[in-house]
Each structure stands twice: as structure tokens, then as C-alpha cells.
Fold this protein.
Amino acid sequence: MAPALAYPESVTEFHEMIDSSISFFYTLINQLGYRHPFHPTQVHFPVGLIFGAFILAVWGKMRHQPMLSRAGWYCMIIAMIWILPTVITGLMDWRHFYAGALFFPFTMKFILATVLVILLAVGVFIGLRRGSESNGMIAIYALCLLTVAGLGFFGGELVYGEKAAPVSVENSQLKDYQPGRELYTANCGGCHANGGNVIKPKLPVKHSSKTEDLKTFLAWIRNPRAPMPAYSSQVLSDQQAGDMYQYIIQVLNRS
């Protein structure tokens, strides 16, 4: 059942309500077999449309074909519409997988996303008032492309930057600890891919004192320091936490 939604009486309660709703969404898609961030499933739509808008506009200008320029502008309109779910799912992933930690790549993504929305809105407005072949439209499309490239760069920093070396153990070992691996990927992979630490690279999970024994590990995940979220027994049972711990000790620490 979905979490009950009561009118929040404070900012804290409002944040808790939002986080509860987000957790419910990810729990639901996890049960359907989808355990990855949801934002990447949305982001490719506006990116492709913006690239298409630029190509069509340039081609239309070079060939003097207004229909192509018009098609490019329509791509921009659809991209503007699709930005909303893209931004929403990005914020959801940020809250769920990164506990809302505002470190540099996220700051830049928020800034660039705001710039992109403004550029798209300006492009749509100019097309409405002056036509899709107006001077400056190609420049707006080009700026949108550069902004998207910046978003992709900082998104790549989140996925690939500051990661520990890839896990290099035998496939048979991975199979033995598959339940723990899936739990670790779903709950910890955002900030601690391959046992690293995106937020504080000098404090990886691998060989951490927090994984000295299962009791210490349980105490850590149940009551961590911010921005790491707490994993209560309702979120991760002791059995699940134990499976995740074994994956860390037997696979990540040996990679």
C-alpha cells in the first residue's frame, strides 16, 4: 500500500513525506526487478530531441527549407515538455541514492539544468513570436547542445568519477554472494560503487573500520552520520544486512 499522505505541519514533515513517497516508488520498481536509478531512462529523450532540433535547423537553413526548421522547433517544444519528468526523476534519484547530498557535480547539474530550461523556453517563445527560422534560433539550439554536454559530463563524474577499481573476482564467487551484491547495488551503489565513496573518496567502504564485524556494520547502517541515510530494519532486515555485509567482506574487500 502507498504511504498515507497527511498535510505536513512543518518543513521537516514535508521532507519526510516526500522521501517516504520516493522510497515507496523505488520499492515498487525494485519489486518489479528494476534496481537502477530511474533518471537515465528519461534523460535520453530530451537530449536526442535537442540534437535533432539542431541538425534540422542547420539543415533547413543551409537548404532554405522552412519545413525542416519548423520540424526542429517542434523537437524543441517536445524536449521542453519532456524536461519536466527528466528533472523530477533526477531529483528523485538524488534524494534516494545520494540522500540529497549537495556536492559539486550535483551543484553543476542543477545549474546547467536551470540554464537548459531557460534556453528551451526562450527558443519556444521566439519561435512563437518570430517564427522557427528567426535569426538566433540556431545559436539557441547550439547553446542547448553545449548545456546538455555539460550535464552529461557531470553525470559521468557521478557514475565513473572517484570510483574504486572494478571488482575483479571470479564469477563463481560473485554468484555465491549475489543476494548481497543486489542489495548493495540497490541501496549503496549510488555513493559507494565498487566499495568506493563518491562524496568522500578518502573514506571508502572497502576495508573500512565500519565493516570490522557484522555488529559494527549493523550499528553503522542503522544510525549513520549525514548525509548517509539510515537503513532501519523495515528497509533492510538483519538477514539482508548480513548478506550485504558478506558481499562487502568476501568480494569487495578482496577485489
